[in-house]
Design brief:
single chain, 233 residues, alpha+beta, 2 domains, 7 strands, binds zinc ion
């Protein structure tokens, strides 16, 4: 499942005014059009993360070059992560309610969905309690703060791919912290850069040979590279 050259260029048309989850679901849907949009939005967040890691590995390889800033001294650190090391088994896409017991109280809930994530990113849900209220279908009124903590832990256990974190240490001040990985953001940024490069290549070939965008995109990537090398001679 990779984006075709035409689909990759469409990445440049998307993005403004959309959230990370919306961009991620667009990529997921483009590479896997057999799944309905309703299923994608209802799927647990870990499924979206898994799909983004698969797409990234298929298109750009398994080594992720990431960076973060030390929260104490603002030093920028760079690190490399291998996708197979952070990708867990594919989580099931269906998201049925399940029952647990918290302090003797029965609670029915489901995993956090891509739609929940989109609502958080849009500011429609502003805190963790709002997410829990959407996930818990029965027993919400009996939950105190500790109960919310238990729900949080259960949601994490049931969808571990949804939260990928790294233990990071600052080489400058030795501070250590948990870096959070946002697969939609990282993969989108990388694919957008790749799409811009493709646009430059199309521009160069269109100018040199008088071809249309469609004609350039019809060439296989190796053939396109070969023509670009000829232009550089
Ligand atoms: Zn530091």
């Amino acid at each position: 499942m990779v984006l075709t050259s035409e689909q990759l260029l469409c990445v440049l048309d998307q993005g403004d005014g959309t959230t990370g989850a919306e961009r991620g679901v667009w990529l997921w849907r483009t590479t896997d059009p057999g799944i309905s949009l309703e299923s994608l939005w209802g799927a647990p967040v870990g499924c979206l993360a898994h799909a983004m890691l698969d797409l990234r590995e298929a298109m750009l390889g398994p080594q992720l070059e990431l960076h973060d800033r030390c929260p104490r001294c603002d030093e920028e650190i760079e690190f490399t992560v291998s996708i197979p090391e952070i990708r867990l088994a594919q989580p099931p896409m269906d998201n049925p309610p399940f029952d647990v017991e918290i302090d003797g109280q029965p609670v029915t809930l489901r995993r956090v969905s891509c739609d929940d994530l989109r609502r958080v990113e849009r500011g429609e849900i502003t805190d963790r309690a709002g997410v829990i209220a959407r996930c818990v279908s029965q027993g919400l009124e009996g939950l105190d703060e500790a109960g919310h903590g238990s729900i949080d832990a259960i949601l994490g256990e049931r969808d571990p791919q949804a939260d990928v974190t790294f233990s990071l240490a600052c080489p400058a001040c030795a501070h250590s912290w948990e870096g959070v990985f946002d697969p939609c953001e990282v993969v989108w940024t990388e694919l957008r850069a790749r799409a811009k490069q493709l646009l430059f290549d199309v521009d160069a070939l269109a100018r040199a040979y008088g071809w249309s965008e469609a004609e350039v995109l019809k060439l296989s990537p190796p053939r396109r590279r070969a023509y670009l090398e000829l232009l550089d001679r």
